[in-house]
Amino acid sequence: MTRYPRLMPTHPRLFTALVTSSVRMSPSFQRVTIAGDELASFEWNGFDHWFRIFLPPAVGAPLRLPVVSGRSWWKPYLAIPERERPHCSNYTVADIRAGSGVAEMDVDVVLHWDASGDIAAGVAGWAVSAEPGSPVGLLDQGPLFDPPDDMRGVHLVADESGLPAVRGILRDLGEHVTGTAIIEVPHADDIEPLAAPAGVDVVWIARGAGDGSVPGTSALAALRSRVTPHPHDYAFVVGESTLATEGRRALHRAGLPKSRITFSGFWKHTPHCA
C-alpha cells in the first residue's frame, strides 16, 4: 500500500455534522445517521468511499477539530491537549442522501463487547449512546477500491469491519462484472441481502456467537479454497490485520500480481475482544 492511495483527495475537506438517529441494524451493527448543510457538498464517489470520523472525547464535551492543510492533519491533531483531543477512527460511507436542502449520511458501526459483556468504549460505545444533536467531524479520504482498467474479474474478501466497503463496491460494480465476494460476520443474523452483479458469487460466513473463532480465519480459509485468480483479476482484501496480509499473500501465491491487490488491515484482533 502506498502512503497516499491514488484516489485520495490532494486537499481533503473537513466537514461537520450532527447526529440525527442511531438504530440497531443487526446483532453486530449499529447505524448512525448524521446530517448537516456541509454534507451537501461532500463529493461522494460511491464504492468504498471512506473518511476519518472525529468524535468528542466524552459525552457532552465540545468537539475540537484539527487544522487541515493539504493532507496534513496528524500533527495538528496530536497538538490538541489530550483531554480535549477528539477520538478518531476510519469509516466507510454506508449511504448518503442529498437534496431539497437536506443532506444525510449513514455510518455503520461494528459493535464489540468487553470482557464484562458491555459494549466496548470508542466508536461502538458512541454509536449506541449517541444523542440527536451530538457533533461529529468528517475528513474526506476518497475510495480505496481502485481496479485497473483491464480488470478481468474481481475478488472481494472482508470480515465485518469491511462489510460496508464490500456492500458499496458490489452496489456500484458494472452489471457484467464477474468474480467472488467472501464476507465473514459474527452472527447469521448479520447476513443481509446485497445488490450485486449476477456474475459475482457472494459467499457469507457466520462465525456464530461464542465459537471462539478468530475473526477473519474463516474468510481466509474460504479465499484459499474457493478463489483461483486469473493474472488480470483484481482483489480487495480488508478487515482484521492477519486476514488482509495473509489474504494478499495467498492471492499472490496463486498467481495474482501484488500490484493488482488492494489490502488493508482495519484492526488487529486481541484475545480480550468479543
From TrEMBL:
Domain SIP-like Rossmann fold: 154-269
Boundaries of every Siderophore-interacting FAD-binding domain copy: 19-140
Protein name per its UniProtKB record: Siderophore-interacting protein
Organism phylogeny: Bacteria, Bacillati, Actinomycetota, Actinomycetes, Micrococcales
